[in-house]
Write a structure and sequence with these properties.
Length: 192
């Protein structure tokens, strides 16, 4: 058996980039995840309308660990393990090789490229390991920064769901975007 360092205090790094890594969400993260859901800017950008109790969050985390149709991971900084958000592949459909992706970054860490890096890590996992063909997302019309990031990563705008979200006294459009495996590979995978 190879000599594996015993670093029990260090979080597991499931997918690792240059500045961020993605790790599994555990029951110990319930308080952190609960608090993150109540940051006003995170709620606005994600269109979160419901309120949740800690007990509901604990059940949600437990349920996700049993759910084969989703991969929910926390985004943490490589330098000090600070959790700055979460990312998920959800509604994974093995027959059609499709999934939905979502991303949330805490407001103090937005605009620094962390979300872009996390998105690329998850796309690499989705296309390179899960063998997905299509990954889609929805972004609200008032979130121009996210739309720009998704386009930069390689997502293509497919359509608009008009007035799909009611938030802060008005309706907002939801923009559907996707990236296909050949588009991802053309942009990121080196030919052998």
């Amino acid at each position: 058996m190879p000599n594996v360092p015993q670093e029990t205090d260090r979080p597991v790094r499931f997918l690792e980039g240059a500045r961020v890594y993605l790790r599994p969400l555990n029951q110990e993260d319930t308080e952190l995840y609960y608090r993150t859901l109540y940051y006003p800017e995170v709620r606005r950008l994600s269109g979160t309308q419901k309120h949740f109790t800690k007990e509901q969050i604990a059940r949600y985390i437990d349920g996700k660990s049993q759910d084969n149709s989703s991969v929910l991971l926390l985004i943490a900084l490589c330098e000090d393990d600070t959790v700055i958000g979460d990312i998920a592949l959800q509604d994974i459909d093995g027959m059609n090789r499709t999934a939905n992706i979502r991303l949330a970054i805490s407001e103090n860490f937005q605009g620094k490229g962390y979300g872009t890096e996390a998105m690329k890590l998850m796309l690499e996992y989705g296309f390179g390991i899960l063998n997905l063909h299509r990954i889609e997302l929805n972004v609200f019309s008032y979130n121009a920064r996210a739309q720009h990031v998704y386009e930069k990563v390689g997502f293509v705008k497919e359509g608009v769901q008009r007035e799909a979200l009611f938030y802060n006294h008005q309706y907002h459009d939801s923009i559907l975007m996707s990236i296909l495996e050949h588009e991802y590979r053309a942009k990121y995978v080196q030919a052998p």
